[in-house]
Known about the structure:
Layout: H1 2-6, H2 9-18, H3 23-35, E1 42-45, E2 64-67, H4 94-102, E3 106-110, H5 144-152, E4 157-162, H6 168-174, E5 177-180, E6 200-205, H7 208-218, E7 247-251, H8 261-276, E8 280-284, H9 292-307, H10 326-337, H11 340-353, H12 359-382, E9 385-389, H13 405-409, H14 416-421, E10 425-433, E11 436-443, H15 449-463
Parallel strand pairs: 2-3, 2-4, 7-8, 7-9
Antiparallel strand pairs: 1-3, 4-6, 5-6, 5-10, 9-11, 10-11
Helix pairs in contact: 5-6, 7-15, 9-11, 9-12
The structure holds glutamine.
Amino acid sequence: MSDLLQLTAAQAAERIRTGELEPEALWSAYRERAAGDELNAFTWVAGPEAPAVPKEAPLGGVPVAVKDLFATEGIPSQAGSKILEGYRPPYTATAVERLHSAGAPVLGKTNQDEFAMGSSTEHSAYGPTLNPWDRTRVPGGSSGGSAAAVAAGTAPWAIGTDTGGSIRQPAALCGIVGMKPTYGAVSRYGMIAFASSLDQAGPFTRDVTDAALLLGAMVGRDPRDSTSLALPDPIALPSASDLRGVRIGVPEELTGEGIEPGVLARLEETLDLARELGATVETMRLPHAPHALAAYYLLAPAEASSNLARYDGVRYGLRADGNGDLLHMYTATREAGFGAEVKRRIMLGTYALSSGYYDAYYGRAQKVRTRISEDFKTAWESFDFVATPTSPSVAFELGAKLDDPLAMYLNDFCAVPMSLAGIPAISIPNGLADGLPTGFQLCGPAFSENRILDAAYALERAIGFDGSGARA
Ligand code: GLN
C-alpha cells in the first residue's frame, strides 16, 4: 500500500495502462484508506466493490473524491447542510459523469462548508474537517474535505468548487495543487448552486500534471448548462522546463498589508525562482482589487438568497412540522435546516436586492465587478500572468475565526478578484511557513489554462515541495 501511496494519479493511471497495476487493487487500497479517514474529510465512502472501468479510459480507473455538493445519483448529496440530510439525487452532475466515463469512479463524497459558504469547512452541518498537517487546524474551505483527503493520501485526487477561492485557498492550506478554470469551462449542471455567476468546478491534486489530467476530463460545453463553453484547445499535459519570455506581474494591492510575513517571504523566493527560470517579474497595480471582497460579499449572498429559496421543505430533504400551516412549515424548515452562516448570507443578499437598496448595493457591486475585470484586461497588455499569495495566512486553529465573520471573509482577499473576473487561476504548494504550507497563486486571461499549467509545472519543479509530511 505504501508504494501505491507514493504514486501520483497520473503515475497510477500509467501503471494500470501498462498492466503493472490492477485498478481493483488501487480501488481497494484507497477505499480502505478513505473508510478509515480520521480527518472527517469524507461524508460518504463507496462500498468495497470496485466499479467496472473500461480498459482504454484515459484516467485508467484512478478513483476520485467528490465534494458533497455535486449531485450523484443515489448517493447522499447534502452540500454540507442539514436541510439536505439524506437527499439522494435522481441524477448525476455532468462533471462527475464525465470523470466516471473517463475512468475515474467516485471514491467518496467530501465534507464542505454548508452550501460552500466559508473558508474553513467549520460551517459544515457534519462537523469540521481537520488539516492533515496539524489536526488542531482547519484545512481551509469551502472544499476542505477534498483538499484534506488529497493531502492526507486518502484520495488520489479530488474535485471541488470555487466561488470565491474555495478550491485555491484549501489547496494552499493543505499543501496541494488546486485550480479554478475560466468561468464556464466546466458545466455547473448538477452542482448544488451557491452563486451561479461565480461557481466553477476544478481539480485538487498532488501535482500540476495530475491537475491538467483531471481538469482535461471535466471541461467542455454541456447542453444542460447554457453558461458552459468549449475551450479553444483541449487541456494539454504540461511540459515547460523554463519561463523564458514570460512576464509576471505582482500586484501591490495583493502583496502588502494583511499578508503574513512568512507567506510573503515564500512568495518572494518563488518569484526569484521564476526570474532564474527566465521570467521577468515586475510590480504592477490592480487598483480595484482591494474592493473585490466587499463587492463579492454583496453579489454572492444576493445570488445565494435567490438560489436557496428552493429549500422550502417541499422538494428536498428536511421538512419541519408546520402545524398544518404552509407558511409556517416553510419558515420552520428553513429555521431548522440552515446553519448560522447560511442564514447570515440569505439576510445579506435579500437586503442587498430589496427595493430601495438594489442600486445602492447590488448595482454598485456589479460596477465594481466590471472595474475589476477591466483592471485585469489592462494587466494582460503588459503581462502574461499575475502572481499573488493564494491565502494571506497559513492554516489557522479550529475555532479561531468562527465568531468573527469578517476575519473569515478576509481569507479570500487574494482569491476573490479572479472569481469576479471569471479568469483561471491555480494555487501550487509554495513551501512552509511556521511548519505549515503556503500557496502561490498564478492567474491569466480567460482560456489561458494551458499556459498557466505550463508555467505552474516549471515552477513546481523549481520549488520542489515535499508534501509527504501530511500523508503519514
Ligand atoms: N470563502 C468564500 C465564501 O465564503 C468563498 C467560498 C467559495 O468559493 N465557495 O463565500
